[in-house]
Amino acid sequence: EPEVTQTPSHQVTQMGQEVILRCVPISNHLYFYWYRQILGQKVEFLVSFYNNEISEKSEIFDDQFSVERPDGSNFTLKIRSTKLEDSAMYFCATAGTGFLYEQYFGPGTRLTVT
Amino acid sequence: DAKTTQPPSMDCAEGRAANLPCNHSTISGNEYVYWYRQIHSQGPQYIIHGLKNNETNEMASLIITEDRKSSTLILPHATLRDTAVYYCIVRPERRGGAQKLVFGQGTRLTINP
Known about the structure:
In chain A, the strands form 2 sheets. In chain A, strands 2, 4, 5, 6, 9, 10 and 11 form a 7-stranded mixed beta sheet that branches. A 4-stranded antiparallel beta sheet of chain A has the order 1-3-8-7, with no helix packed on it. The mean pLDDT of chain A is about 95. By secondary structure, chain A is mostly beta strands. Chain A has no helices and 11 strands. By secondary structure, chain B is an all-beta fold. Helices cover about 0% and strands about 45% of the residues of chain B. Chain B has no helices and 9 strands. In chain B, a hairpin with a 6-residue loop joins strand 3 and strand 4 (about 45-50). The radius of gyration of chain B is 14 Å and the shape is globular. The N and C termini of chain B lie far apart (about 40 Å). The model of chain B has no long low-confidence stretch (mean pLDDT about 90). The chains are: A mainly beta, B mainly beta. At the A-B interface, strand 4, strand 5, strand 9 and strand 10 of A face strand 3 and strand 4 of B.
């Protein structure tokens, strides 16, 4: 069964550093999302991406965050200058054609900012 | 988007049916009911969705009341691997573009041996 993959599985970085989280979507999927989950809290939507542009973003997704699909396959989330409060699990999700198709989540990247 | 209410936790014996309720009394006509689950700290996993008819797949059944104000997810023969947090999510039909999922706190289901 096809699956979403994410790298790295765990990233430790110092405050103020830039990090890039990578996601390989399921082949032929057209909708891409990033969510995050701070330890012990709810899964929160960050951003959705379709047709090479952001469709929607939450208030969490400020100027420190950016997304892109640099090579038509990988989908990346960049945090320009990490803060302690960015420590969380970051999940990529992708969905196929159609606006109701279920989202398939990757295993997540645990980001720890020290 | 309509709000959902779920019990914070439930227990079920292994091999029995697990029935997880969800209240979505403010659901509107074009909103679908989705169920996802999250095992430990893994990525959420899609289970099933429906609009007004009952649905069944290889994982579960979804029963939606006639007035659509509540639904029940049924795991017919729960196993220890079904221990997870289960999320009921109401999601509008919006044509064009991506549609986010809004997660609540969910129900922590524990399957006991």
